[in-house]
Amino acid sequence: QGLKPIVSTESPALIFGTTTKLASDLPATDSFLSKNKVPDLQKLFQKADGLPVHLKRGVPDKLLYRTTMALTIGGTIYCLVALYMASQPRNQ
What we know:
Blueprint: H1 38-46, H2 59-87
């Protein structure tokens, strides 16, 4: 008799009928028609101008940074106020 495999050696049937595409089947000029911006951004971010990386792109970065800081500080104050109000006993 010998040893028989417990698990079937046949591959299971496909659950979804879609097939996968290989990378070689895709067209070469699909969605990469624009100019590569990575070298320009590398020059910008590696410039030694004393600014942190998250503020290197100017006004939009400063606006996002300040908005994030304001929301963080506001949320912290709101949480502390809510905690203080929850710790006080209610008047009957």
